[in-house]
Each structure stands twice: as structure tokens, then as C-alpha cells.
Amino acid sequence: NSMHRLTEYSKKRRGIEDKKEDYDYTQEIAIAPTYDKETLAAVASRLTLAIHDWVVSCCLRVDSTNPNLWPRFIDEIEKERPSRVTFNELLKGLQKTLHVVSENNEDFSKDGDPRAPVSQAQIMAFWRETEKFCGGEVTSQGIDNAIYRLQLQTWPVLAVSELQRIVEAMNNAADKWHRSSGNWYKVFVACDSDGSGTLTCQELFDVVRKGYPSLSIPSRVISDEGLRGLWRAVDKNQTGLIDAKEFMSFMRLHGAQLSMHKLTAYSQRLRGMSPVVSHQPAVAAAPPRSREELQNLARRLVHELSKSFHKRRGTVLSDQDLWALFFKEADHKKNGRLTFFQLETHLKESLCRQSSKQAALASCSSTMPMSAGNSGGGADSQALTLAPHELAIVDPAEELVTRTLRHGDLLAIWHAIAGELGVTEVSANDWRVGLYRLELESWPDASDDDIMMVVRKISVQADKWYRAGGNWYKIFKLVQGANASDMIGHRDFFDIIRRPLPSLAMTEKQLSDRELKGLWKALDVDRSGDVDVPEFMCFMRRWEVKWGVSHSPKAAEGSIVHRARMQAAATESGKSARLTDEAMALLSRNVASLSDATLKEAYATWGLEWDGYITEW
Questions:
Q1: Which segment of 216-225, 568-577, 584-593 scores lowest on mean pLDDT?
Q2: Cα-to-chain-centroid distance, residue 284
Q3: SS3 of 167, please?
Q4: Mean pLDDT of 447-470
Q5: Could you write out the DSSP letters of every residue in 418-478?
Q6: What residues pair up with 242 in beta bridges, in sequence order?
Q7: Alpha carbon 201 to its chain's center
Q8: End-to-end distance of the chain based on CA atoms, in angstroms?
Q9: Which listed residue, 134, 521, 543, 559, has the most CB atoms within 10 A of its CB?
Q10: With contact defined as beta carbons under 8 Å apart, do 55 and 47 qualify?
């Protein structure tokens, strides 16, 4: 409110410019085209290359092991708030500092010129990918993590047999150079060159390729693609770092036969383990089942197990907790994985209840050595006499595993899940996700209009009961309930939509099951069966923006910012629109052809006094 104000001339002399509100790209980012992961990874590499060229042109030193390109660039374009940028600031920096944005909005091709410019639509898609785990601003670390995840998704997924071959090759090299066969901790220490206790991708690549004291494994033994696939398999949480526990667990899983810890026959006998090789039969081939039958069988299996646990414990568990508890009970080896025979055995113990006739058959089988014609048994022997068709041999494929599932049904599900993974043992998470994905295949794919309508209905219902329309964090916490893991499953989501207060109590008439399944299928992009806070909120807000709802921060009524905006709006509305130079030139040419008498007569008809001058007013 100072009385001393700088003129425009003084501001220019001092290098001061009036800050104007940046254009809001939120809606354009939400509706920007969707590109595949390979294209986005190529765009990220192109932007990083442009930053590298800019750093070199500024005569700055670039460390090959830790170049810190993005932090340098972000600090250059945003000096007030280091290491954080908005989309407007990033776009302006790419345009004015790097000159890497295409003027004709032509897309960058991953197969074309590696130094070609990038279109604004691709930058929006890259920002949308980066913003998934951030707010309206991203940090240099967030951009680095997003680029790493994009590149990781373009790396190959190796079969279990190939992973085992690579692990064996690394073990042989470790034994050759360091006499450490099966000692995976010693291998990890050799890989951890900086002694940080964590391993990066580059450190793993270096220790495999470089000469002694590294492993010196040539590319003909382990290719570069094999190394990338190995790292993708090890770094499951996609953080770019793995610790000793993760490394050793992975190596022991895929190199169990190479372990340095081997039990003697005496130790095996003390532990109740047979020292001889197990003659467990191989898993039979999968019986013919259609995808619809498999989906129905998977639903029935989950329903039966959930019902059994509810009856035994009096509580309803999520799918994740349900299978984790089941595997914990069945896993006698304590390695977190089950074979088909272990899974089938424990399902029989937990879910299969024999009928009275089956119990009679079982008791009868124990007395089969007795002669059927022995008359000394009296009434007891008559009670055990069964009809010939009741003593017929039962087909193993028809043997009940649960109340409604048979051996052949479970075998078909096993091959659909474990066969796709290429493993002979599955973890609780592998089995749960496999069953969920089978069920998800039968769910409808919702159109954009359907998703927008469903999101709007949920927002309206949340606003009706909790005044939380648009507050997706509050809705997520409502859906989450007592679960403290910051994750929700699809059954939890459906329950909170359908159940009465304190849930949303939406009936089938308000929101059909088909619409709800279509929404969840679009929400769960990675098909993991769980959704966390960033996924849920970004998805819902993106669709709100598409129908025109914005939740950008607003100034409080009566605040200094609010009064300043109101005053600026009133000033702008009070100004009259001035004629452009072209309009003024056209008016001058037409007026010049008129005489004073004509103009005086025209002014008289308008009720105005002619004074010899014409103004734009």
C-alpha cells in the first residue's frame, strides 16, 4: 500500500517484470494423448540428452557416475524454489533454455533423429506419468524416478529357467575369482563398490562386466538384455536400489541348488527330513477348461475360502490377507512358496468335508483284508457291506478338493497361473494376483463417458452423506476403513459403495455392478488388485477435470489476494475496448470520403452536436 510506486520505465531499468498468472494446463494434460511406454522412455531420454548438451555448452563439469542433470536444469529454471517445478515452468525452460520443443507440434519418433524436437503433447504425457506420485509440482528426484520406471518397463521379462542360468553363471564366476560359491552376501559386497549397503543397476552391470576384482563375465555368457532382465526381476518395487536382503533372497530362490549351506544326512534325520531325493510325482497336464470356466472356478475358490475363514475366525478378510494366512498355514518349509501338491493338500484339509458315505468308504477300506464271506462278523459285518457300484474306483480328476471344486478344476487353475509365470512354486501374492486377473478378464471395458458418469455419481453420493464431493482423499480413507496399509482391494471398494452407512449405500439402481466393475478395471491399470492413495486420487481428479470440475486453490473471501483480484477485475471491466490499428486505418479511409455537411447532417439525426472532430468514443 505504499504511496511510492515504480513507473513502467523504472521497472524496465531495474529488470522487474509484473508476474502474470500462468496458463492452467491441467485440463489439457488430462486429455493429452496416451503414448506407449517405449515412446515415453524415448522422450525422457531425448530431454535428458538435451539437458546434457546444455550443461556441456555452459562449460560445466559432468560426472559420469552421478551427472545430476535434472537437478541442475531445475535449479536453473526455478531459482526461488530449488528442486521443484510446475508444468508451466518446465515447459518454459524446455522452450527457452533447451529449445527442444517442436514449433509445429510434430511428435518425436523413437526410430527417427535422436536429436529431433519433442511435441508439447508428448511433454504433457511425460508430465502426467511423472505427476502420478507427486502433486502439482515435481522434484528432480521425482523426474529421475519416473524416467527410471519408464525405462525399466521397456526391459525384458525373463523366464525362470533363464534367471536360474544367469544366477548359476554369476555363481561360477564368483567361485572362480573369489572362492565364494553360494555365498551370496560375499557376492553382494563385491557388487557394492561404494559400500553404501545398497546396490544400483550400474554397480551390478559393472561388477559383472569389469575385470578382477569384479566377475569379468563376457556378453556371450550373459548378454546385456539378460542383465537388464535380471535387474528388472530383482528390483520388484522399482526404486532403483536393492539391499542385501533383497539380493540374497532372490539369489537363494533362483540358485537354491548352489547354496553354501547343505545339511548332512544326520541333520536331515534330526529335522524329520528324508535325505533321499523326493519322488514326488510331476504335475499332470492341464485338463481342458475354457476361460469362462476358469473365471467361474476362481470365483468359487475365493468364495469358499473366505467363507471358511469367516466361520472359523468370525471375521471377513481381504483377498491379500486371506491368501497370506492360508499360505502361512500350509508352508511347512517356511520359504513363502507352495507347490501344487502342498496347495491341494491344505485345501482338502481346510475346505473339503467328506459325506457320511465317503466316511463309511474310508472306514471300510481299512477293513478290506477281512473276508467278505466271513459270517463271524454278525450285524457289524453287515453294516460294512456296500453295493458293488459304491466300491468302484473314483477317477482322480473327479476327486473333491473343496466342496465344489475337483482335482481337475484346481489343476486347470494352477496351470493358468503358474504356467503363465513359468514356475513350479507360487507365493501367496502370485496366487492371489493370478486369481484376480482371471476374474478381471470377464469384466467390461468402460468407455470414457461411462467412467465420467460413474465418478460423478460417487462424488455426488459422497457429498450427500459426508459433504466430501471432490475430496477424494477423504473418500479414499472412507473406503479404506480400518485398513492401515494405505491400499484398498476391489472387494473393499465394492463393499463401501454398496453397504449402508457409514458406507455410501448406493443401490444397484443408482450404480450397476457392470458400471462399478468397469470403473475398477480402468482404475487398476497395473492389474495388481490393489490401489493406493496416489493412484486413486490422480485417477478421480483427472476424470473430474475432463467434465470441467477444477479443485485449484482459491483465495479466501475477504483476504488481500481476493480483494486485489476483485479490484483488478473491476478495472479491466471498466476499460473500453480500443480500436486496433487496422480498424483505425479502415475508419480513417471511409471518413475521409465524407464532406463536413454530410457528417453534420448525420450527427443531427443522432441527436449530437457536430464540432468538427471525430473520436473513437
A1: 568-577
A2: 35
A3: helix
A4: 80
A5: HHHHT-SSEEHHHHHHHHHHHHHHTS----HHHHHHHHHHHHHHHHHHHS-TT-HHHHHHH
A6: 199
A7: 21
A8: 33
A9: 543
A10: no
CA–chain centroid gap for 34, Å, is 16
Question: What residues contact residue 313 under an 8 Å CB cut-off, 6+ apart?
Answer: none
CB 454 within 8 A of CB 511: yes
What amino acid is encoded at 419 in this protein? Answer: G
| Longest CA–CA separation in the chain, Å | 145
pLDDT digits (tens, 9 = 90+) for 194-229: 777 888 888 888 888 888 878 888 888 888 999 999
Q: Please check whether residue 150 is in contact with residue 41, taking contact to mean a CB–CB distance below 8 angstroms.
A: yes
Cα 10 from Cα 17, distance rounded (Å): 10
Q: Which helix (H) or strand (E) holds 242?
A: strand 242-243
DSSP letters, 9-30, are HHHHHHT-----PPP--HHHHH
From the list 516, 507, 492, 520, the residue with the least C-alpha distance to 461 is: 507
Strand partners, 487: 532
Tell me the sheet residues that pair with 184.
none
| pLDDT-derived band at 133, boundaries 50, 70, 90 | low
Residue 463: CB atoms within 10 Å? 14
Number of other residues whose CB lies within 10 A of the CB of residue 614: 13
Is the CB of residue 470 less than 8 Å from the CB of residue 551? yes
**Distance of alpha carbon 167 from alpha carbon 217, whole angstroms:** 12
What gap in Å lies between CA 126 and CA 40, rounded to an integer?
A: 6
Which of 122-126, 187-191, 258-262 is predicted least confidently? 258-262
Task: Quote the Cα angle for 438-444-445, to 5°.
Answer: 110
- Which comes out higher in pLDDT, residue 364 or 214? 214
Q: What is the pLDDT of residue 555?
A: 62
- To the nearest whole number, what is the mean pLDDT of the chain? 76
Placement of cell 536382503 in the chain: 245
CA proximity to 209, closest of 232, 193, 195: 193
Residue 397: per-residue pLDDT? 63
Give the Cα separation of 69 and 54 in Å (integer): 10
User: Is the pLDDT reported for residue 192 higher than 80?
Assistant: no
Q: H helices within 472-532, ranges in order?
A: 472-480, 490-498, 513-523
Query: pLDDT tens digit string along 288-302?
Result: 888 888 889 888 888
Q: Is the pLDDT of residue 53 over 80?
A: yes
Strand, coil or helix: what is 416?
helix
State residue 257's pLDDT score.
66
Give me the pLDDT at residue 566, please. 78
Pairing label, strands 487-489, 426-427 = unpaired
Give the position of cell 511435441.
119
